[in-house]
Design brief:
Layout: H1 6-34, H2 40-50, H3 54-57, H4 59-71, H5 73-82, H6 84-104, H7 111-138, E1 142-143, E2 146-147, H8 157-181, H9 184-215, H10 217-224, H11 228-232, H12 234-251, H13 258-278, E3 281-283, E4 287-288, H14 289-292, H15 296-323, E5 328-329, E6 333-334
Antiparallel strand pairs: 1-2, 3-4, 5-6
Helix pairs in contact: 1-2, 1-4, 1-7, 1-8, 4-5, 6-7, 7-8, 8-9, 8-13, 9-10, 9-12, 12-13
Length: 335
């Protein structure tokens, strides 16, 4: 009997992508809001709120990329050339952002330049990720086992819109993080920014949810045909519920944790909605997870290493967040 390891690798890859979107999403969101910080002291606090954990968050990007290459090589070979341009832009922006993060504290003479580099790098990286997401949902031009489209086919009105939508989404996560980690005027400003980002995110979710079925008839059939519409109704209903709770939590000055938690739940439901729309396809409209998977022997070999590696990543990630829990202040750091 041949064991099927595709579900295991699907779960690993799905978790890696989700943890990257969630964890690097909020620190990219802080970087987006960084552009609106009024003075150096405020920017210092924003930096300090993510300084202990920002680089570790990108571990999940590496795991997701390598997992896709190793477990689903056909999907990797098609998807990467199709979105090569926005991925290149994203990686360059992340590198530039990381350099700016480090040099800002060591090159005071060019502080303004590094501040702008950090803020702009966060915006560009987020927008590029949104373009990749939009292009993936729309699908790619594939002939046989190869991508046969153009380098800029990924740039469409839909993908550009998802890029803008992700800016609001990451901004909401970042504002929720700042509400959790800061106090006083900075926290009050974060609540105002959270309101704007929430409205933008809510509008984007609604538009994408309507636009996607119009782009793909199979997705429309999956969501709106009977009895699917009854089984899947909890997803939009819970999204509406958590949207109401998020709005109330942002307005509640006694709630520091809830705005971030409800923003995370909204991301979970959005992620689940994309998964429902596309499963079991990993190259939309062309190849399923099983068709694109590597050999069972390869998956077993890689799985053995991952079984040991994944708990280590989870433990040190959780430990770093626990150590640096609490509020951040300009004079005392974390307390």
């Amino acid at each position: 009997m041949i064991l099927d390891f595709v579900p295991m690798w699907t779960l690993i890859l799905g978790l890696a992508v989700f943890f990257y979107v969630l964890l690097d999403g909020f620190d990219l969101g802080v970087g987006i809001l960084y552009n609106f910080a009024p003075d150096t002291q405020t920017r210092n606090l924003l930096m300090n709120s993510i300084a202990p954990i920002w680089d570790g968050n990108e571990t999940w990007l590496v795991l997701g990329g390598l997992g896709l290459l190793a477990a689903f090589p056909l999907a990797f070979a098609i998807i990467l050339p199709a979105v090569y341009f926005p991925i290149l832009v994203m990686l360059l922006a992340l590198i530039f952002r990381g350099v700016a993060f480090e040099f800002r504290f060591r090159d005071a003479e060019h502080l303004t330049f590094w501040d702008r580099a950090f803020g702009c790098g966060s915006v560009v990286a987020t927008f590029a990720q949104g373009v990749v997401l939009g292009a993936f949902i729309q699908g790619f031009q594939v002939t046989g086992r190869h991508f046969t489209g153009g380098s800029l086919d990924c740039i469409t009105p839909f993908s550009l819109f998802t890029g803008i939508a992700l800016l609001f989404g990451y901004g909401l996560l970042g504002a929720g993080w700042l509400i959790l980690k800061t106090e006083g005027q900075l926290q009050a400003a974060a609540r105002k920014q959270a309101r704007l980002c929430f409205l933008g995110t809510l509008a984007a979710v609604a538009i994408v949810s309507l636009w996607t079925p119009l782009v793909d008839g199979e997705i429309a059939q999956r969501w709106f045909a009977w009895p699917n519409i009854a089984f899947l109704a909890p997803v939009p209903l819970l999204t509406a519920l958590f949207g109401v709770l998020e709005w109330r939590a942002i307005a509640d000055t006694r709630a520091d944790l809830k705005p971030f938690v409800y923003a995370v739940l909204l991301f979970i439901l959005s992620y689940l909605g994309i998964a429902i729309s596309l499963f079991p396809m990993i190259v939309p409209h062309h190849y399923s997870l099983w068709q694109a998977a590597s050999s069972p022997d390869t998956q077993i070999f890689l799985g053995i290493g991952t079984v040991f590696l994944l708990p280590v990543i989870l433990v040190y990630t959780g430990w770093s967040y626990w150590v640096f829990r609490g509020k951040v202040r300009a004079d005392t750091g974390y307390h």
